[in-house]
Amino acid sequence: MIRITGIGAVSAAGGNVPETLESFRSGMRNAGPVTLFDTPLEYPVFEVKQIPEKYFLEGQRTLSLAIIAVEEALGEAGLENDLSGLRIGVCLGTTVACQLNDLDFYQSYHSTGTASMTPVERYLKGNLAEFVSRKFKAKGPVLTIVNACSSGTDSIGVALSWLNNGFCDIAIAGGSDELNRIPLCGFGSLGIVSSELCAPFDSARKGLNLGEGAGVMILERKESAERRGRFSDLYLSGYGSASDSYHLTAPRPDGAGLERAIMKALSDSGISPGEISFVNAHGTATQDNDLVEGNTLGRIFGTELKMLSTKGYTGHTLGAAGGLEAVFSAAALREGWIPASAGFNNKDENIPLMPVREKTEIRGTYALSTSLAFGGNNAAIVIGRICDDKKH
Amino acid sequence: MNINGIGIVFTRGRGIESLDKALQEGWQAPAEREIKGRKTFAYIVDQHTISDRTLLKNMRRADKLSKMAVVAASDALESSGIKDLNRKRIGIITATALGAHVTTFNFLDDILQYGDAGVSPTTFSNSVHNAVASYISSALGIEGPTLTVTQFFFAFHSALQLAQAWLLEGRCDYVLAGAVEQYGDVLGYIHDTKLVPAPGGRIRPFHFKPACQVPGEGSVFFLLGNKKQDNSFCEIHNVLLNADEKDTPQADLDIIDADGLLEDETVYKNCLSSAVPAASYSPLFGSMLSGSAFNCAAGALMLRNQKVYANPAADNARGLNIVTDTVSCNIELIRCIRYNCLGEKAIIQLGA
Question: Which CATH number applies to B2-351: 1.10.10.10, 3.40.47.10, 3.40.1700.10, 2.40.30.10?
């Protein structure tokens, strides 16, 4: 069994997990205009308002966000100190940090034929997982997953494979992405960004809002956790992934790829759909995503399923989304409640189920978190919680 | 884990036969290019090499990076000769260090020229790192897990390691794992500014210091499976990251990935044994951060053909035990060795 011995999160909803839960409890949506860079695009975004000085890295905001979440997660896992004696893998997802998309560098090269190598050096030292691994002196496999919007969920799934195959004893897994001008322009050009606050699964939804953040889990083999004297009531029980084999940007209309990913995550966990207490859906608030995802979830779990999208609190954080939503799902299982699915008001008659409209108590021991990516990859993880009477 | 099929696209052509031919013919001068008034070299894949109208019929808007990868991945399936593959049970792992940087720069051109609201959605979609894997999935009808991974030196090794895990777990019956990199003039500029350009376009893997490079491009994909098949090339015994020498048995041949991407490649000299012949085929492909995949393909071909191929760059000022002739011989084990700029090492152990 793979334990979740620590979780960490930073997003517009909060600088750590407790702050985030407070935003969820109060229904706070911290969106506003873009302040991080100049752009004429007037879309609301979910920015992290302040990065503490000790985490600031010039031109490497994605890494700063990651370090905040990793430190919080390591702290909960009792791994604050030197990790060099442990077999720790690092598997993190991103979209922005993998690209050399420095506009000043490119503009200089383009216009003069020369450019400073400083942004290149920064890029070459800024591979997300490599950076985190070196910073924390982790000795184990290292991999950055660049699977667009499912990167965070896939990273957790890859870490699960590493742990199950004995490649490492502990894994730092999740995702991180900054709000960046390039994807804002790109998503804007695709016509899927809303000029209002996003409304996942709502009949009047107009598209996504971009956000930023990082969500990280410390995953650990049971024997390792026990050896360190750590107990956790949370565990990662399954992962599934499947490709649509359909289109570069649009999800497959019948949701067959997503369904296979979910069913694989359930079978990995040895459970049936009825044992899922809630689903933290990808729920971007685009027409296509929510239609396909809502219908697929309805088909598998029935119309009474408790489900939500937390993107109403964080925006779509791209490579971080799967990591953040895994953390939120784990925290919700532990807390026993899920927040209202922010932005949802009106049922879409083409979607057979609705997200929860208010803070809702949950019972049960399993949660599912889903991600649908550009390129047609679908990923799902199942997180479990050990009930109090089974803890010992 | 077995290599059941290989597909390759590189400057000398497409397909495993092209690799065999290039290994037999040896070094050829790369293309000369002029970038912003400077002359330089690069190992470029000719557009004709990847003009496959049937395979790429729905990829008119895809970039060269994706087309090279789709062709290589398709050829890997084809070369396996395995009939009735269940495509829902095939996974894809694409490794790339730099991804779609050429398309990303095209997108930056859009922003500079037309402003934030005037950019092309098609260019943006193709600039995303996992566009390549998406095209492979849709062009080949593969519906298993599809992943894109990145690191600067060991992305391909990590992809192989993960493929091994997926096969062991039964997550897939086969995994198409491979690497792809594209050349662009901005990359050429970065190479020539940060690293030493190879005089005359000739990479000298056994010169070590100063190491010199010529950027390359291409793609290699491997169809990996648990079982040996009729057309199998070899086994991958192990993929070791940050390995000590003592972790690996002595091989019949060491292939080093020295290609000038480290300023000082003396680490490669230090890992070689006088008792084991050494080779490096980077002068055939060019210098690429995922170049290990190409040398791995050469190693797999040698094991299948039971033949060693002469080093394409023969200069051997240090008198090392390097392969100088192409000869048939008995080979059981090959080590493919890669170092990164921190002196960390990755080894792929290939066995007959």
Answer: 3.40.47.10
